[in-house]
Write a structure and sequence with these properties.
The protein has 384 residues and is α/β, with parallel strands linked by helices. It has 15 helices and 13 strands. Helix 2 runs parallel beside helix 4 and helix 7 packs across helix 13.
Length: 384
């Protein structure tokens, strides 16, 4: 990468969200001078104050399209007072579509779109608005297609996004880069868990659900598993619960003696204690089957593998393909309680313990992000 690319302005959807913080710190690790302009949501880390220059944009709600539109307009107005910050950055990096719109408007207003500045769009997920078949979906894809012509680089976390959406539906054939949602450490990483001992067939397997807990179908599946297997399984849930998606979450899990909810945890240091006490982790997203859920690669599969915990996912999805090809877990033919029970029974304890120790014996770098990922991605845009 040329010496010119030294400063990055990140447009973020939520300054306090863990993946947003990880991305900026990864850029810092790579040696870039990073600043941000970011919205803030009320999901987590409400008191978080970034230790880098940040412009606070509008408060954004969850799953409220009208509110998001208002937030885009308010944020764009806020950024007009900071046009020089946009113009003087070597790289403008927009993380999700809302941020892409704001960043593009700011670049036009600051005239930086006419300079040698690298404009990056990082697609975190394919929102359901873009896969609709009605006029709304067509309109959203048309707007995104227009903005895709303005960028220098498209960054995705899964090859499924390119193969199933950007290439066939948006006709995107310009520079792109893959940066997977691998685990990220700042400073010294904790020690990986020790190898797991052999377990008796009578021991009870523990199934984890860790991270951002928002998928209703996954929640119902795990409740069904707890109900059917009773005291022959334990389920550990940990992370941030999106209450607008999982209504009455706490009330419902209280009905089960074999379900434990640990609440939020410190990322990434808290992951080891969680995963070392899980024998499997449910890694499949079921929220938008047939589209985004089929195409994504969640950070759970890397975090779990780093800590020696096998993942479980559907064999027909990108997640399932990945963990099967990379020997990171087990796959189901259908997302049913029966299939999940069969998978656990078939692989516990023998195959699960063997898989766990195989994961722990692998080079940790296979599951970790590195600052070179950012450098390599930006190199893809240099030929523009």
């Amino acid at each position: 990468m040329g010496e010119k690319l030294t400063s990055i302005l990140v447009f973020g959807f939520d300054i306090s969200e863990s993946s947003q913080i990880r991305r900026i710190r990864l850029m810092q690790t790579a040696g870039f001078d990073v600043s941000s302009a970011a919205m803030r949501r009320d999901n987590m880390n409400l008191d978080f104050v970034p230790d880098w220059p940040n412009i606070e944009l509008a408060q954004a709600g969850n799953a409220k399209m009208l509110n998001r539109l208002v937030a885009i307009l308010k944020s764009s107005k806020t950024m007009l007072a900071h046009r020089s910050m946009v113009r003087d950055s070597d790289v403008v990096w927009a993380r999700n579509f809302d941020m892409l719109v704001i960043a593009w408007l700011c670049r036009v207003a600051s005239r930086s779109s006419k300079t040698r500045q690298t404009f990056v769009y990082e697609c975190l997920d394919i929102h359901s608005l873009f896969t609709r078949t009605d006029w709304i979906g067509r309109a959203m894809r048309a707007v995104e297609r227009l903005l895709l012509r303005q960028i220098d680089l498209l960054v995705v976390s899964s090859p499924g996004f390119m193969q199933n959406y950007f290439e066939p539906h948006q006709g995107y054939d310009r520079p792109s880069a893959l940066i997977e949602n691998k685990i990220s450490f700042r400073g010294e990483a904790p020690k990986r868990p020790p190898a797991r001992p052999e377990k008796a067939k009578t021991s009870v397997p523990v199934v984890g659900w860790v991270g951002t807990l928002r998928c209703p179908a996954s929640f119902e599946l795990l409740l069904g598993l707890a109900s059917e297997m009773k005291d022959t399984v334990r389920i550990r849930m940990a992370g941030i619960v999106h209450e607008h998606m999982l209504t009455a979450f706490r009330e419902r899990i209280q009905e089960f003696e074999n379900i434990e909810f640990l609440g939020a945890y410190d990322y990434p240091m808290g992951l080891t204690e969680i995963y070392r006490n899980c024998d499997f982790v449910w890694s499949q997203d079921l929220w938008q089957m047939g589209a985004n859920s089929d195409w994504l690669l969640p950070n759970r599969i890397y975090e779990a593998s780093w800590n020696g915990c096998p993942s479980i996912a559907l064999e027909t999805t990108e997640t399932g393909h990945y963990i099967r090809e990379n020997e990171m877990g087990f796959v189901l033919s259908k997302p049913t309680v029966g299939c999940l029970m069969e998978c656990i029974s078939k692989n516990w304890p023998g195959a699960a313990v063997e898989m766990s120790n195989q994961l722990l014996s692998r080079d940790r770098a296979a599951f970790e992000q590195n600052g070179s990922d950012i450098i390599r991605a930006l190199q893809m845009a240099e030929s523009k």
